[in-house]
Every structure is written in C-alpha cells, then in structure tokens.
Amino acid sequence: MRRLATTYVFFANGALFASVLPHLPTIKRQAALDDPEIGVVVAAASVGALLAGPLAGRVTRRLGAGPLAATCTLLYCAVLWSPARLASYLALITVFALFGMLDGLIDVALNTMALAVQQTHERPMINGFHAWWSIGAVSASAAAAMFTGLGVPITMMLTASAAVLAAGTLALLPAIWRHRGIGGRSGAGHVRPRRRRPGRLVLLGTVALLVAFAEDVPSTWSAVYVEDELGGSAGIAAGAYVAFVSAMTLGRLVNDRLIEHFGARRVVRAQAALLAAAFAGVAASDHPAAAIAAFAMAGVGVSVLFPTVLAAAGSDGDEFTAGNLAYLTWVGRVGFLIAPALVGAVAGLTNLSTGILLGAVAGLLLMALAGPLTRGTTP
C-alpha cells in the first residue's frame, strides 16, 4: 500500500497545477493582464515554493512525509478553484504564491516517500514515480483542453478537478498517513560515503537551473503563445501544454532503455539538441499545429534532463545525497521563478516569439554540459 499511496500522491501533485496552467489565457483575459503581468503571477508560485523550501525538510521530519503530503494536497484542492473567480492582479499573485508554498512542501514529502519505497524494494523506482507525476499532469491538462473546447466554464472545471483529486486522497488517506518516509533504517546497496565535491555540485546546480527554465517555458507560455500569437482557439491552445507534457511522459518511459543502449552522455546531448531545435521551431511557427508539434518535441527533449541531475546528486555518496537533492530542488525552483518573469519581460520589450527563443539558448547550454553532467554517473 505504501507504493500505491506514493504513486497517487505523485499523480495528484502533477494534476493539481496542471489543472490551472491550460486556463492561463482565460485567467489573463478575465483579469485584463498583459504578458509581463501574467508572467509575474505564475512566477509567484515559484516564490511561494522558495519560501516554503527552508521549512519543508523540518516539517517533513516533524509531521512525517505522508501526513504532510495528504494535508497539503487537501488544502491545495480546497483553493484550486480560486483563480477562476479572481480579477485582481494582487489577489492572483497571492493565490499562486499559496499554490507554490503547498507544492514546495508536497515536493519534499513525496520524494521522501518515493526514496523510502525505493529503499524497501532495493531497486531504482523514483523515475517511475516521477512518470506518474507526468501522467497526472497529462490527464489534468487533457481534461482541461477537452472541456474548454466544449465551452465548460473555468470555475466548474477547476472545482471538478479539485473534487476528484480530494476524493482520491481521502480514499487512500490511511495508507498515505501511515507512510512516514525515510526513517533511521538505511537501504541496502547504496553508494558508500565518499566526499562532497563543491565544484561538481555547482555544475549540477547550473544544470538544474537551466532544466527548470526549459521546462517552465512550455508550461507557462505554450497556451498563451498558441492563442495570442497564432490565433488558435482556447481549446487548441490548451492542447499545446497537453502535447508538451504527453511527450515528456513518453520520453521518461523509454529513457532508461535508451541510456542502457546508447549511454547517458549521448542521450542527454541528443535530447538537449532536440530541445533547442524545438524552441527554435516554436518561434518560427506560423500555425498552431506547427507550434504544438514543436512543443511536443520540447517535451521529449527535456524529459531525460532532470532525472539525470537527480541521479548525479548521489555521486558524492549517501552521506551527502539528501543535502545535494535539497540544494538542487531549491535551485530548480529558482529557475521556475526566473523563467516566467524573464520570458514575459522579453515578450513585453519585443514579442513572445523572441521570449520563447530563450528556451533554445538553454537547450544549447545543456547540450554543452552533457559531458560533465554524465561523467561518472552512468555508463
């Protein structure tokens, strides 16, 4: 039951924010926001997560991973409807900051749960759990795209999403609540303690920052770009994010086999190159279908990158793994904070196509860093 509980928490966490993202064009229109302002609203979620980050580890240890994950998931469900009813810029910033704080707490809790299950089974499983996060995001965003196309009001859609996810959490509440995460028992077969390498940790942090930036560009701007720049309908625009997350999910399902066959360095370098080409393709698109296809390419390109960073975080040995992961997660949050505001600012000064090209720059940098990133971690 611990594995099922952990799987569901990952699924629900992916579905929660993905229930909101496809509706950003509607939220932007209802509140009469411009591109820089909606960028700041979305960036507020990263600010909230950064503020919660320093407390997340302490709260997880005090309450237990399962109780914290369940409580924050239910609170998230309780406020999920609010962006649909708010027309105030400051109110939207506040709500998105709350989303981020809850997500920051859940993130630490669910990864602690995943590592505990992995230790119990004594085999790699955390990538599979993260795939379920993507499946949750795909399911929620696909439902949002479908019902938006049918003309269902945004308030009704967000309320229904919250009700479904809360019901699942309550159904599994005993199993989630008993799941305390990693305790004093250590798993077998882990890397023996060695020494921390600050230079390598800085490199991994740089990669985490770039990966988070690259992931955030489609998450925040795909629907806005297709609707506002290319004239797609709201339903078609929501499908752009669905295409991105679906492709990222499929990539994560096959990347382990690709790495086993070709090696991590080749796979990371090839997918980073694909990521750069995909963002260039988005910026050059003159039709919604072309842009959606390019966003799907970006999903494949980014799929291998953050799992590779997390795998590399353990290369200093078990003694430092938890601290390394906490640092990389925090740096990733910084990337999610920077990306919406930076792309929005560039869009305000030029146009959104130019802002999207920042993702291509991140892809090129990641391609250059593929060698040092994968050195000594995977054959």
Automatic annotation (TrEMBL):
Record's bilayer topology term: Multi-pass membrane protein
Q: Name one GO cellular component term.
A: membrane
Residues in a coiled coil are: none
Q: What is this protein called?
A: MFS transporter
One Gene Ontology MF term? transmembrane transporter activity
Task: Give the transmembrane region(s).
Answer: 38-56, 63-81, 87-110, 131-150, 156-177, 198-214, 234-255, 267-284, 290-313, 325-349, 355-374
- The reply to whether Oxidoreductase figures as a keyword in the UniProt entry is no
InterPro entries assigned: MFS, MFS_trans_sf, MFS_Transporter
An example of a Pfam family matching this protein is MFS_1
Q: Keywords of this protein's UniProt record, alphabetized?
A: Membrane, Transmembrane, Transmembrane helix
Q: Which domain of life is it from?
A: Bacteria
**Which subcellular locations apply to this protein?**
Membrane
